[in-house]
Amino acid sequence: MKKTLGLVITAIGILIIAGAFIFTPEHALNPADSGSGISASAGLAYSGFIIFGIGIVLYISSLPYAGEKTK
């Protein structure tokens, strides 16, 4: 269950990042540029990276240690 939850949260984070890069207006410099203002989606891109990281941590914490036998 924890593996699946971690992968789902990771996928949501990737989708948020992709959406921030795809839907940023053309006149903005880039989604990660906070100097372009609110229309640059910088907050959305950075929050996607945070959510992606949380998902990776949840997934990795559910894996067994190296050399550990399954119960």
Helix content: 55-70%
| Largest sheet: number of strands, sense, barrel closure | none
- List unreliable stretches of 5+ residues: none
Mean pLDDT: 81
Q: What does the oligomeric state look like here?
A: single chain
* N→C terminal distance: 16 Å
Bin the strand percentage: under 5%
Global morphology: rod-shaped
What's the alpha carbon Rg, rounded to whole Å? 16 Å
Number of strands: 0
Structural class: mainly alpha
Topology as H/E string? HH
Number of helices: 2
Please tell me about this protein's structure.
The chain has helices at 2-22, 42-61. The chain has 71 residues and is an all-alpha fold. The chain has 2 helices and no strands. The longest helix has 21 residues, at 2-22. The model has no long low-confidence stretch (mean pLDDT 81). Helix content is 58%, strand content 0%. It is rod-shaped, with a radius of gyration of 16 Å.
